[in-house]
């Protein structure tokens, strides 16, 4: 029996015998014929109000069941993510206990370890309950995770020296990536697994514009986005501006100097939108770029053309038939969208899971498992040199969609299967760069790709 029917059928006798109403159920005389069949006559009254009430009750019950199923579908992914975060927090406590010292107090670590253990036990008990207190546990885990991340960042600052000023490139390249900080689920819901988000990648600390752009449920169509004036507004989902656009393709978009840059739907065209007015200002083809999922990233569809902003300007990452699918990096003129200079790398783009730019250096990722990525490759556009890296990046869910770097706070903003995640990036100080580096951390590649200055092309 279906759940809705099971709920309202027991109420049927109550509705058929209501105070002040003619009874619809009572004993009536009958007779049995020679074949053993019972015959009786039942006279129904003209007043069918109870039956109408029954129909209304059935409709209300079905609506409540639908709402219950929707709520359950939202809570189940949150429960799974909560379990993963607790596992990560427990692992971090173990690492901090092993490496603690200096200003990281041992009694604080012991206290955090105890709290995480208690939360884990509570979560186990919650798995056998009706999940009524899930949100309360969610808040408790958020507090614990925040305290753990504060401890980790304190340890980082001790090891890496003072933080870099906003927009500074006075460092020796990427050194490591923090654990992921889960901000929240995207505003369109769990079904919108693909998308992008970030902070305006202009190297300006006074600019605090945040944007979120979940794709439609088909993981391709970029049709809506929201803008927030501050991080607090984003977390609280208030004071936002929601815009409908309707012609973007994939999750390779970014925001630079208050303009959104993206791949125009179904074409190799790149486009520019003024976020203040939601007006399409410019659209032009990207020479030789493939599109329509020809050379997208591994596990991420419709991201043939990927924009990136950093301290050095606006970039576009893509592949061509001429490059045989290898990643191509081009620097764009933000006023005209013309390609100013192009570099060809030795790495096959569909073998990467994503890439980003920081201080004119391309960093490429590849998956190691469903819970970990590796930043394995770097290409410096200033020197034209490539190098191998092995920098691990943890992830909460399997697929990293939009990946955007912000020079203002040196963070990486990642859209991870519907969730908004960010990472702190730690860079080598120039003093550390000059010293001998540990073996296996990175090595220079023998090939040195040369920059290519493109010929100007007119749109057909």
Please give a structural write-up.
With 460 residues, this protein is α+β, with helices and mostly antiparallel strands. It has 2 domains: 66-154, Helicase, Ruva Protein, domain 3 (Orthogonal Bundle); 164-452, Neuraminidase (6 Propeller), CATH 2.120.10. 27% of the residues lie in helices and 33% in strands. It is built from 7 helices and 25 strands. The strands form 6 sheets. Strands 3, 4, 21, 22 and 23 form a 5-stranded antiparallel sheet that branches. Strands 13-14-15-16-25 form a 5-stranded antiparallel sheet, with no helix packed on it. It is globular and about 105 Å long. The protein starts with a helix and ends in an 8-residue tail after the last strand. Residues 1-22, 434-444 and 446-460 have low confidence and may be disordered.
Topology (elements, then pairings):
Layout lengths: L2 H6 L3 H5 L13 E3 L5 E3 L8 H51 L6 H22 L6 H27 L13 E4 L3 E5 L9 E5 L10 E5 L6 E8 L2 H6 L3 E10 L4 E3 L2 E5 L5 E6 L4 E7 L20 E5 L2 E7 L6 E7 L6 E10 L5 E5 L2 E9 L2 E9 L4 E10 L5 E7 L4 E6 L2 E9 L2 H5 L7 E3 L6 E2 L8
Antiparallel strand pairs: 1-2, 3-23, 4-23, 5-6, 6-7, 7-8, 9-10, 10-11, 11-12, 13-14, 14-15, 15-16, 16-25, 17-18, 18-19, 19-20, 20-24, 21-22, 22-23
Helix pairs in contact: 3-4, 3-5, 4-5
Main location: secreted
Keywords: Coiled coil, Secreted, Signal
InterPro entries: Olfac-like_dom (IPR003112), Olfactomedin-like_domain (IPR050605), Quino_amine_DH_bsu (IPR011044)
Quick description:
This protein is an alpha+beta fold and 460 residues long. The chain has helices spanning 3-8, 12-16, 49-99, 106-127, 134-160, 231-236, 430-434, and strands at residues 30-32, 38-40, 174-177, 181-185, 195-199, 210-214, 221-228, 240-249, 254-256, 259-263, 269-274, 279-285, 306-310, 313-319, 326-332, 339-348, 354-358, 361-369, 372-380, 385-394, 400-406, 411-416, 419-427, 442-444, 451-452. Helix 3 runs antiparallel to helix 4, helix 3 (49-99) packs parallel to helix 5 (134-160) and helix 4 packs antiparallel against helix 5.
């Amino acid at each position: 029996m279906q759940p809705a029917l099971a709920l309202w059928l027991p109420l049927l006798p109550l509705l058929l015998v209501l105070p002040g109403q003619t009874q619809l159920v009572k004993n009536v005389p009958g007779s049995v014929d020679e074949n053993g069949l019972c015959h009786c006559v039942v006279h129904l009254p003209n007043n069918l109000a109870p039956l109408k009430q029954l129909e209304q009750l059935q409709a209300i019950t079905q609506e409540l069941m639908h709402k219950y199923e929707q709520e359950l579908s939202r809570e189940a992914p949150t429960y799974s993510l909560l379990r993963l975060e607790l596992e990560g927090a427990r692992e971090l406590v173990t690492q901090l206990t092993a490496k603690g010292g200096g200003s990281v107090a041992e009694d604080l670590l012991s206290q955090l370890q105890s709290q995480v253990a208690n939360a884990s036990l509570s979560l186990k008990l919650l798995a056998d309950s009706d999940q009524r207190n899930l949100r309360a546990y969610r808040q408790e885990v958020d507090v614990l995770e925040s305290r753990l991340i504060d401890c980790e960042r304190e340890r980082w600052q001790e090891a890496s020296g003072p933080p870099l000023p906003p927009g500074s490139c006075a460092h020796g390249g990427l050194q490591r990536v923090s654990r992921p900080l889960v901000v929240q689920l995207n505003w369109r819901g769990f079904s919108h697994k693909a998308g992008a988000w970030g902070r305006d990648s202009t190297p300006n600390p006074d600019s605090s514009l945040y944007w979120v752009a979940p794709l439609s449920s088909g993981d391709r169509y970029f049709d809506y986005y929201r803008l927030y004036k501050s991080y607090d507004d984003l977390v609280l989902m208030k004071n936002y501006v929601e815009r409908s656009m309707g012609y973007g393709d994939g999750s390779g978009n970014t925001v630079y100097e208050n303009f959104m840059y993206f791949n125009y739907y179904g074409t190799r065209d790149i486009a520019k939108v003024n976020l203040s007015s939601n007006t399409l200002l410019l659209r032009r083809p990207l020479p030789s770029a493939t599109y329509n999922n020809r050379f997208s990233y591994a596990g991420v569809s419709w991201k043939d053309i990927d924009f990136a902003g950093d301290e050095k300007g606006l970039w576009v990452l893509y592949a061509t038939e001429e490059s045989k699918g290898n990643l191509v990096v081009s620097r764009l003129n933000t006023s005209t969208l013309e390609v100013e200079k192009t570099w060809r790398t030795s790495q096959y783009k569909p073998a990467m899971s994503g890439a980003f730019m920081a201080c004119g250096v391309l960093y490429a990722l590849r998956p190691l498992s469903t819970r970990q990525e590796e930043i394995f490759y770097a290409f410096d556009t200033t020197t034209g040199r490539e190098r191998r890296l092995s920098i691990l990046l943890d992830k909460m869910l399997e697929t990293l969609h939009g990946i955007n770097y912000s020079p203002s706070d040196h963070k990486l903003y990642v859209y991870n299967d519907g969730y908004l995640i960010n990472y702190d990036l730690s860079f080598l100080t120039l003093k550390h760069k000059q010293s001998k580096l540990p073996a296996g951390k990175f090595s220079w590649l023998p090939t040195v790709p040369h920059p290519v200055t493109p010929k100007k092309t007119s749109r057909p």
